[in-house]
Amino acid sequence: MKKVLLGKSGIEVSALCLGTDLYGSKRDQATSFQLLDFFRGAGGTFVDGPDVVDGNLVTGRAWPDHPQWFRQFMEQLRRTAPVG
User: Fold this and answer.
1) What pTM did the predictor assign?
2) Domain, as residue range, for 16
3) In the chain, count of helices (H) and strands (E)?
4) Which of 24, 48, 69, 76 would give a disulfide with 60, using CB separation of 3.0 to 4.6 Å?
């Protein structure tokens, strides 16, 4: 798959971005993973999702993504600052 630079970041990504807005809501887990595996096998490296986890930083795109962002945030919090 063709690679391109992501804006001015210097990061090289696949020219196609896989949108995953239906994964989990309209696609079951097995189908979602099959589609992701197919995309990766074709050379895809650019996947759009509702949140980004980078080390201890968890970010989201906008308020509609808040439920998914909060789940990722809590999962990260449990790993880095366990209670009990």
Assistant:
1) 0.59
2) 1-49
3) 2, 6
4) 69
Length of the chain: 84
Query: What b/e string do you get for 29-53 counting C-beta neighbours within 10 Å, with b at 16 or more?
Result: eeeeeeeeeebeeeebbbeebbbee
Q: Give tens-digit pLDDT for 51-64.
A: 666 777 777 666 66
What 8-state DSSP symbol labels residue 41? Answer: H
Distance CA 36, CA 66 (A): 23
Beta strand 12-14 with 46-48 is unpaired
Q: Are residues 38 and 4 in the same domain?
A: yes
- If asked whether residues 64 and 40 sit together in one domain, one would say no
